[in-house]
Amino acid sequence: MSDIQLSALDAHAESDDSAASLSAGDDAYVRIRRDVLSCRLPPGAFVTEPELMARYGIRKTSCRIALTRLAQEGFVRSRPRKGYQVSPILLRDVEEVFTLRVQLEPLAARLAAGRADIAKLRELEAACRVQHPVLQLTDQIGVFMDANKAFHLAVAEASGNARLHRTLGQLMDEMSRLVALGFGVQKTKPEIKHDHNALIEALAEGDGKRAETIARRHIETFQAMTLEKLYASLAETGAAIPVNGPGSWR
To answer: Which of 99, 115, 186, 222 has its CA 20 to 30 A from that of 175?
Structure first.
């Protein structure tokens, strides 16, 4: 076998190793990210690479790939000599998330009127109401938030604005932590009442103005409900949301 062929085989083997590391890193990223969003890794908690490697049964390369991606998304922060900190939830974060949602989602609903896949939305709405009594409450909340996110992003996608869709996806992920923290401690699941169905009807009729109004009411109602649970949870645990600066809830 020639030197060129051997070099090609070596390059192929290195490529396979790199792909395997990336795949394992992707898996580690998904698993750690899920625990950050569900608050199994609490806001403000400090973690180290060895702790995460042991907890998730992953290698150092995979762990670093996952942490790098999570840091890019703002879910963790590197702390010299301490490892990493799960980003705390600040009062400013809560206000910013809801301020953006109440502006962007009504816009998405108005643009989606007459364009949305109504059958798909009805299917996604039904998924939001499925009960999973065999699951732990944290997992039930996670399943609900996944279904709820899928519904809202389907509306955003129907708006035809890719940037709007992408931005709302990021906001829904941040919402997951707020909901997990607030509702999880209070041992209850969020309720969506009938707003989803009302929104579907407005979209089906092509009534953009009504869809916009319903979406705004839905976000404002969910904001009040989430903040009530969040502050009740903080009072119960003796914690407090920092207003502007970092803090630890270890």
So the answer is: 115
Q: What is the pLDDT of residues 101-138, one digit of tens each?
A: 999 999 999 999 999 999 999 999 999 988 888 888 88
**How many Cα atoms within 13 Å fall on the side-chain side of residue 31?**
15
Task: Kindly tell me if the per-residue pLDDT of 249 is higher than 70.
Answer: no
Alpha-carbon torsion 54, 60, 66, 67, what sign?
Answer: positive
Q: Are 78 and 47 in contact (CB under 8 A)?
A: no
Q: Any alpha helices (H) in the chain, and if so which ranges?
A: 3-37, 49-56, 60-73, 91-112, 118-128, 137-158, 162-185, 195-204, 208-237
Which DSSP string corresponds to 13-81? Answer: HHHHHHHHHHHHHHHHHHHHHHHHHTTSS-TT-EE-HHHHHHHHT--HHHHHHHHHHHHHHTSEEEETT
Q: For the chain, what is the mean pLDDT?
A: 85
Query: What was the pLDDT predicted at 237?
Result: 56
Dig out the tokens for 164 from the structure: 């709007």
For the chain, domains (ranges, CATH) are 24-86 (1.10.10.10), 91-236 (1.20.120.530)
Q: Name residues whose C-beta falls within 8 Å of residue 44's C-beta, 6 or more positions apart in sequence.
A: 85, 86, 87, 88, 89, 246, 247, 248, 249, 250
First to last CA, the chain: 59
